[in-house]
Amino acid sequence: MWHENVEDFGQEIEPDRTFRFECHPGLSCFGMCCATEITLTPYDIARLRRHLSVDTGAFLATYCKTCIDPRMGFPFVVLKHKEDGKCVFLGSHGCDLYESRPSCCRNYPLARVIDEDGKTGKRLIRYYLQQQAIYCEGIGRGPAWTIGDYCEANGLGPYEKANDLFLDIPFTFNGLPYHVRQDREVHSMLFGAVFNFDTFFEKYGRFPHTSVPEDDHEMIVLVRSITLNLMGKTADFKNPLPPGEGKWKFLESHQF
Ligand code: SF4
Ligand code: SF4
Q: Domain residues of the chain, as ranges?
């Protein structure tokens, strides 16, 4: 998801500092954090749909809602909620898909923020300790974590690698002229290529990369390559807005 004021999400944690956190079923807040908005990256979708043995078309139709970010114009995908307001994957003992849980669930209580300098293209990654979940009893207790240790304990390595590749797509999109970014056909093309990639590849198998990778990381490499190629073919891409527009920051976090 995209934001301008990431500072609203909490207190920045420097890489050499620690934060305290623990989470277990004995806490009275158990599962309350799963009533928030969970934004999925393409790699999250690749892992979840593999866990469920479905393709992206079935996964998105059954478990997700698709939206267009009103400010940036980029499509994004969130998990549906059940009637009780909790995540569609929350079972009586916690997350039913825990080993395939999405990036922002793995990062919690941290928010991972990626910002791109519009002039140099250099990316800055920061972490914030989320402050909105006042019901979360786990923040401020339990073991002290560095960001590195916490990310490793939550298996974030492959997620960060794939998500950072994916970000080339929205950051490139952000350089397109406003009217292209607001075009419904462009949104539809992007949604198909970036999120509904199984269906997209089946439909447009004429692309040079005809074999669909078995490996989820390789799938994101392919998604990135095809989408950047498609965006490069849009009529106005050769005439983007001047640099300096990259003010949106990508946020991997629960949304309250
Ligand atoms: S609210 Fe915090 S402590 Fe409670 S279950 Fe969620 S993450 Fe764990
Ligand atoms: S995917 Fe799992 S951990 Fe994430 S919000 Fe849903 S139930 Fe909770």
A: 6-115+123-155+248-252
- List, as one string, the DSSP characters of 15-80: TT--EEE---TTSTTTTGGGGSB-EE-HHHHHHHHHHTT--HHHHHHHHEEEEE-TTT--EEEEE-
Write the pLDDT tens digit of every residue in 96-109.
999 999 999 999 99
Task: Report helix, strand or coil for 12.
Answer: strand
64 CA distance to ligand 2 centroid (A)?
Answer: 13
133 CA closest ligand 1 atom index? 1
Q: Determine whether the shortest distance from the Cβ of 48 to ligand 2 is under 6 A.
A: no
The H or E element containing residue 128 is strand 123-130
118-159 pLDDT tens trace? 677 788 899 999 887 889 999 999 999 999 999 999 999 999
Distance CA(67)–CA(54), nearest Å, equals 22
Is the Cβ–Cβ distance between 226 and 86 less than 8 Å?
A: no
Per-residue pLDDT reduced to its tens digit, 8-20: 677 899 988 999 9
> What percentage of the chain has pLDDT greater than the value 90?
54
| Element holding 220 (H helix, E strand) | helix 216-233
Q: What is the pLDDT of residue 33?
A: 92
Residue 138, ligand 1, Cβ within 6 A: yes
Question: Ligand 1 centre and the CA of 176: distance in Å?
Answer: 39
Ligand 2 contacts CB of residue 95 (under 6 A): yes
Q: What is the DSSP letter of 81?
A: B
